[in-house]
Fold:
Amino acid sequence: MKQYTFLLFFVCTVLIFFVCTVLIFSACSSSDEYRLSGSVFIPDKDFPELPKYSEWGYNTFGTYIDRTPFVSDNYTMPVKIIVESDTCRIGFSGQYLNKTTLTFHLPGFSPENYSALSALNNKTISLTEPSCMVTFTNNNKTDTLNITEGLLTFKRVQKLLVDKEEMKSVLSGTFSMKTTIAGEPVTIGNGRFDVTVGEINFFKKR
Structure:
């Protein structure tokens, strides 16, 4: 009887350990998935309405349009990259009064996949170049901006590895410009981004 009780106790202990192990690993997996796709907003100490500049793949961006913040949120994919023929479109989407997208069109750049975005590392692009285009979508209306001065800088583009396997690319940098929106001259300043790009938000049109 004692042997039977001990055996039953041993089997129950092993089963409990197995179930707990599965639950722990499942939680870690869910946590990793959120960490890779979710957003982490850490306020800038000088501009608390914007996320601080970072290079950790926090999936955030932010800028001021004059004095009104335009920032990523927890409901909209913060960045989508669309590659078609010889142009790469990088669109940042979030909230500015309502849902808004600011898109940088980079001509002559056609990455085959998100890993190839590493070619942008440490690159600064003048937004006043005739071949470069920036569009602004608000209230389902898209305008091509006339940029009088502006820069887009990719300070760092790095690969995000999980178990030595590349999962995403992390793009971090800054931007600023002077332009006109709805007939009014505006300054888009203190722009910063720290976003991850992978299979779910990289699109290449064939």
